[in-house]
Amino acid sequence: MTEIRNVEADLVRFRVRLAVVALGVVAAFGLIILVIGARGWYAAWQKEQHAMKTGDERNMPIQHAGPIRRFARDYLDARSGIGVGFMPLAVVLLITIVIQGLNVNLFIVVTIVIYALFILMVIDSAWATHNARVLCEYKFGDGKVPPRFTWQMFTRTFYLRRWRLPVPMVKRGEYPV
Questions:
Q1: Of 9, 65, 105, 147, which is the most buried if we count CB atoms within 10 A?
Q2: What's the whole-model pTM score?
């Protein structure tokens, strides 16, 4: 009986070792393929990132290129919305969560105020994105607005200007014609 248990234990150990070796071989081959394939991919990615930082439309990723998206980006970058306060407000919320034990009533008030500001930010960003879409449809024609345009522009309104990619090409108040 103990011999059978020893054989079963040896078999289990063998299977575990075999699985570890097989996993190591697969990982090694995957790493080699990744390194070989990453050279071309990384160069293309760097080219796209440079284009997004300089505004070069020819080399931008396809989801950011085109006159319609550029017009909408310029429209949203020209306006001063309250959505850009999202990131700093999120940091404030995280800090209040960490120190909530000091004064619970203050934490409740601050949390309610922050949530109200979040709701205002969403409404403001939705309004700005809707206006950008309407202007693009008016300028470029109905049905010309690309798919996922609204969500892309909506999320853009929440980033600080210096964090936006493609970078803003207009100053505040310079609305596109």
A1: 65
A2: 0.73
